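Q: What would this chain look like folded?
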Amino acid sequence: MPKLNTVHPEVKDYLLEGADYWIREVGIDGWRLAVANEVDHRFWREFRMRVKDAKPDAFIVGDVWSNGSRWLGGDQFDSVINYPFRSIAIAFLSGSGMDGQLFAGSINARKFDFQVLSLHIKADKPEYYST
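A: My prediction, written as structure tokens:
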């Protein structure tokens, strides 16, 4: 995944014009934004304003590997995908041997963030980001 300098005016304008084009000209209903936590919050605020101006009911969801609350204040994304939580929820709901107490302990926010960060630090980057 390329790392774009979204603070640079020409890069920012190009990306925002692209977002506008896909909403207005092609008629998409929203955006799923991969690796959303790697992009500056100021850019996402402008992105949201541009998209919502073009289509107020457009849906914006970002991939975030940690606590997504910083993106959910009504000024960036409508929702976030939290894959680590998904894995824990599937293990609990599928009857794979995870009981309610283990599930509750697994979703403790600080413990959960620490576990995800530990995985990130220990993992080979290409393998970590490809899952």
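Helices lie at 9-26, 41-54, 83-93, 100-106, 109-122, 125-130.
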